Batch of 2 targets.
Target 1
Amino acid sequence: MIDINKAKLNLLSSGFLNIHIDSNLDLFKEINILKEKKNAVILAHYYQDSDIQDIADFIGDSLALAQKAEQTNADIIVFAGVHFMAETAKILNPSKKVLLPDLNAGCSLSDSAPPALFKLFKDKYPNHIVITYINCSAGIKALSDIICTSSNAEVIINSLPKDQKIIFAPDKNLGSYLNKKTGRSMVLWNGACMVHEIFSLEKIVKLKIRHPKAKVISHPECEENILSISDFIGSTSELLKFTKLNESKEFIVVTEPGILHQMQINKPNKVFIPAPPNNSCACNNCPHMKLNTLEKLYLCMEYELPELILDEALRTASKKPIERMLQISKDHGL
Ligand code: 13P
Ligand code: SF4
């Protein structure tokens, strides 16, 4: 039995406390008991550790997770992902308790767009509609007209008249990829994801020489030079689907390597090679996503902390552009 109080758990989630969990405890069993007892649902992103994916009720990309969060009947949503994802779940579910195993699980892309600076930027472009990638704070969402994810961005942009002026934020790589795909010239905010901007083109090309039959598949948050040599570009769920349906037996996967777990489960006989970054590390884990662990998941369900709390005025203002995204997605069968 763990002897801690709520204050200690808050310290734990801030990384100040190291709680010892009885090593005899079967965390999978305990988490399942808590899930049942508390009518909780565990939603996990594909970039989470394999054991978290294995115990989750639902695993998905940012769009599917937002849709699931909107539909759930659970009393507690445990979000195994990063802060903006849990925040989106809370925006859609004010009466539910939303828990995040580690409240420090942020996102470099979200951090690259502080709301006060973004407001000044937006004011320079009157008559522009603001489309923002879901990887942003509630403050940015509240300044936006429509939210999008990498699964529905093209559909959302194309739903607007061709001559509609658009600001796209915060990811400049995704934004310029979408400008090419849709033939628009959206004004881009200069943000990027720390994981997707450090893939090494040189190392990927070398891998391709060693594995000539492998398909290079990349997330659109990657830089242009990586996207230009890719055989397929898509969101995490689209990459996963591609590896299921494409006849190739080998894939060089240029996104956070957590996605490889589901690829391998779906196609155990195929080979998935995680693309390396341009530093001395062999893999390119997202340090934010990987802050969540099975132990923290257990503790947060046991103590119902840390809880995501959101100012009500901010919640209402940030809800509208998310609802617009969900409606357009629904209208297009996404
Ligand atoms: P998707 O899973 O929606 O493609 O998003 C990727 C990502 O970077 C999430 O942080
Ligand atoms: Fe943010 Fe990039 Fe990590 Fe996704 S992978 S949570 S965009 S830092």
Note: The pocket of iron/sulfur cluster (ligand 2) is lined by residues 47, 82, 107-109, 135, 193-195, 256, 286, 288-289 (CB under 6 Å).
Target 2
Amino acid sequence: MNTNTTDKPHNFIEKIINDDLVNKTVSQIKTRFPPEPNGYLHIGHAKSICINFGLAQDFGGTCNLRFDDTNPVKEDIEYVESIKKDVQWLGFQWDGDIRFTSQYFDQLHDWAVELIKQSKAYVCDLTQEEGRELRGTLKEPGQNSPYRDRSVAENLSLFAKMRAGDFAEGHCSLRAKIAMNSPNIQLRDPVIYRIKHVSHHQTGDTWCIYPSYDFAHGQSDAIEEITHSICTLEFAEHRPLYNWFIENLPVPATPHQYEFSRLNVNYTITSKRKLKLLVDENHVEGWDDPRMPTISGLRRRGFTPESIRTFAKMTGVTKVDGIADVSMLEYAIREDLNENATRAMCVLHPLKVTLTNYPSDKTEILSAAGHPNRDDMGTRSLPFDSELLIDQEDFREAANKKYKRLVIGKRVRLRNAYIIEADEAIKNDQGEIIEVRARIIEDTVGKNPADGIKAKGVIHWVSAKNHVDCDVHLYDRLFTDEAPDAGGKDFLECINPNSLEVVQGCKAEVGLANATEEDYFQFEREGYFKKDEAHSSVDKLVFNRTIGLRDTWDKK
Ligand code: ATP
Ligand code: MG
């Protein structure tokens, strides 16, 4: 058996696991990631995935992927598929088959019957509203339901009728009989089964009663023999209930629940319900809109699995709620892409440059490194000829010394190519510059000029004849407010109206025609980019800007 212990636990959960392995309380750890398939996963879930699968990896255990599908009203198979894809994309593999809580519905039902037989559960005819009123508050104890003392026989018969579909939704529910005066509200006779006349994406119309989250979760952990059931802090209060079910049922194992603080990120929302609203009301293109904090959105934007795993690590595992700075995520992706993205050139706002001393029928194939420090990333071929395109921002008729780009009478180096000197700007009737006439300085590819007059700056370019056309999507943060949904704020009012700028008519180096889903690029001097698979077609490529080269948000 493969079990690892460690001398240096990084956080309190690692310490607990390490102690359990050292003390032989468990021989091998088993964790699970238990999403409800009611939306796409977001960056917060990514953290939970990294923790659960990461612990299993680090300690030589296994991790299950279990869909917590007890609420068929909000769930959909589309979400199941997207979640599987996201987990694998992040670099993790679940143990064996994927699991569904719904696979355990028979067992859960039998355990509910078992509780009734032990006089520990009863059918209650209070409406949800009445039930809530008798529940009490943090300061006031609850009151017993008038149905609490029904006989075992009556409860068994009523529960059978619930199961058979004899009652309308809301007519009654099955509740655990614990203690209405417990200081912990979760223990005040919680509902364990509700009537829902709804088809389920996995079980069809087999069931018209569905277990509550609390009744299903711990028991599913027990069935799967999960050793460490890790969840977010809001479930700490549910832990006594989790344990009560485990203690009162003949479950095959005794899992333990541990809680850590959920990940919140500034300028972002991490609530599936709110993200769904953005999608449903068309504020974004869909769950995978590159501005969304969903895993699928981040993937489409060009974030790497590695950068998300790094970010999850950077934010730590604690019991203290906090808000992580989104610039940490941006830092993680910049670091990764600086190291691993292929270099390329793309001109966003083209301006034609005619080289008057270069033969108009000549094309030279220049070579450039895929990455300045990495030979393993190969070389790129750059066709060079007498008509080039540079960015409009990179030319001025006259400028001071700080402007290290192309100026009439001055020199600039074309990245990976010759030094050129500008002679003249051609304008249209409106006085706009539409072309620059320039000359190459001979024998300056990879060399300084023989006359000793160096170029001060370097600019990017493409051939006007040999390039690929593309559009570029420039993204900014989706919200202008640091805490878009804090303190009752309407997050829809904080949407950044300039979160997407579409730049059409961009010109990229020829190699980008072959860009695939696996490729990450640094467009030199422009930022990090990834091909948008959804928007690209055979006629036109679309690239998403993942992130700029430097953090400029504070300087706006
Ligand atoms: P949401 O509030 O966005 O709907 P959820 O907790 O209801 O999230 P689940 O599908 O139940 O969504 O979550 C699956 C797992 O991911 C749970 O164990 C949950 O604790 C964890 N999780 C959800 N949100 C976060 C977060 N922001 N940070 C860390 N873990 C999270
Ligand atoms: Mg949940």
Note: Residues 43-58 form the longest helix (16 residues).
